[in-house]
Amino acid sequence: MAHNRDEEVDLLGNTNVDYKMDYDPSILESFENRHQNRDYFVKFNCPEFTSLCPKTGQPDFATIYISYIPEKDMVESKSLKLYLFSFRNHGDFHEDCMNTIMNDLIELMDPRYIEVLGKFTPRGGISIDPYTNYGRPGTKYEKMAEHRMMNHDLYPENIDHR
């Protein structure tokens, strides 16, 4: 039996939200996937991600793409927004941030499949676009993750504006 959505999440609709300035995975909230009988993707586009370079303390900016196939639990979008905001003063390399995000979402939801892509704006004349993914071991999603990893940049975009 499905739960009342009001009982599942606390942040959505709450106007007294505390925007954490330091990395905090405890912000993340989940709710029940009411369509567990089918595979489907949920994709988040997060164009205002900010973290700090761990060496210089300078800000790094990115668009983060998170796509996943849920099992029992799904991430609530406002909690995801606040969680991503908590990286604002977090000093870590681009690759580490993307893997941390993916690991925290796996811990929260135990999805069938998930991938996280960061498209960072250039600093020093170079941009970095780390891609990471995960498919549940021993399932078709593990094979899907392998396939998508091998082919994730098969048709790279033409970037001339960042």
Automatic annotation (TrEMBL):
Its EC number is 1.7.1.13. Pathway: tRNA modification; tRNA-queuosine biosynthesis. Pfam families: QueF. It catalyses: 7-aminomethyl-7-carbaguanine + 2 NADP(+) = 7-cyano-7-carbaguanine + 2 NADPH + 3 H(+). This is NADPH-dependent 7-cyano-7-deazaguanine reductase. One of its GO terms (cellular component) is cytoplasm. Its main location: cytoplasm. GO terms for molecular function: preQ1 synthase activity. Substrate binds at residues 75-77, 94-95. The lineage of its organism: Bacteria, Bacillati, Bacillota, Bacilli, Bacillales. SUPFAM superfamilies: Tetrahydrobiopterin biosynthesis enzymes-like. Keywords: Cytoplasm, NADP, Oxidoreductase, Queuosine biosynthesis. The keyword Cell cycle does not apply. It comes from Alkalicoccus saliphilus. It is found in: Cytoplasm. The active site is at residues 53, 60. Catalyzes the NADPH-dependent reduction of 7-cyano-7-deazaguanine (preQ0) to 7-aminomethyl-7-deazaguanine (preQ1). InterPro entries: GTP-CH-I_C/QueF, NADPH_dep_7-cyano-7-deazaG_red, QueF, QueF_type1. PANTHER family: NADPH-DEPENDENT 7-CYANO-7-DEAZAGUANINE REDUCTASE. One of its GO terms (biological process) is tRNA queuosine(34) biosynthetic process. It comes from the Bacteria. Belongs to the GTP cyclohydrolase I family. QueF type 1 subfamily.
